[in-house]
Amino acid sequence: MKMNLLPAIRLTIATLVLFCVVYPAVVWGIAQLAPNNGKGEVITVGGKRYYANVGQQFTEDRYFNSRPSAVDYNAAGSAGSNKGPSNPDYLQSVQTRLDTFLLHNPGVQKNDVPVELVTASGSGLDPDISEQGARVQAARIAKVRGISETAVKELIAKHTEGPLLGLFGPAHINVLKLNLALDQLK
């Protein structure tokens, strides 16, 4: 037993040092090379600070809607709802979101609403929507703000980011950045 116990204790101490000291130090060091020292992308407008990499809630008709959040946009509690697609509560939530979206966007057909506008992401904090998710809201925003729908669509095109390295994931738009740019339109 003594022969097995000593190597087990040494292995435990070695893995504790590796995974509790060395690995976190390496990750922290790499984060220091990133913009804003790994603390996320901070945007300051009018003295207010916003984190562009965390979803924000926009409910006014003059703004693009964000993706719904299962955690009410609380960055301290990132999580999904963990309800499956056949769960009655989940289906009711999605239907309520869809009905609300259609009420605020007259003229949009149910089939034209992208899924990300009525379903929460796995983290509940997704800051992005698809280009289609923004375009389907363009008419409402143009009408409320009294600007042309073409100007809104040009703004959408300007803020569309392509896939990572041109290969990974779909094109997307950061809703916070898009709404801040919308406020700067004259």
From TrEMBL:
Keywords, A to Z, come to: ATP-binding, Cell membrane, Ion transport, Membrane, Nucleotide-binding, Potassium, Potassium transport, Transmembrane, Transmembrane helix, Transport
Query: Its topology with respect to the membrane?
Result: Single-pass membrane protein
Pfam families recorded for this chain?
KdpC
What subcellular compartments does it reside in?
Cell membrane
Q: What is its main location?
A: membrane
The entry assigns this protein to a family as follows: Belongs to the KdpC family.
| NCBIfam families tied to this protein | kdpC, PRK00315.1, PRK14002.1
Subunit structure, briefly? The system is composed of three essential subunits: KdpA, KdpB and KdpC.
Its biological purpose: Part of the high-affinity ATP-driven potassium transport (or Kdp) system, which catalyzes the hydrolysis of ATP coupled with the electrogenic transport of potassium into the cytoplasm. This subunit acts as a catalytic chaperone that increases the ATP-binding affinity of the ATP-hydrolyzing subunit KdpB by the formation of a transient KdpB/KdpC/ATP ternary complex.
Can you name this protein?
Answer: Potassium-transporting ATPase KdpC subunit
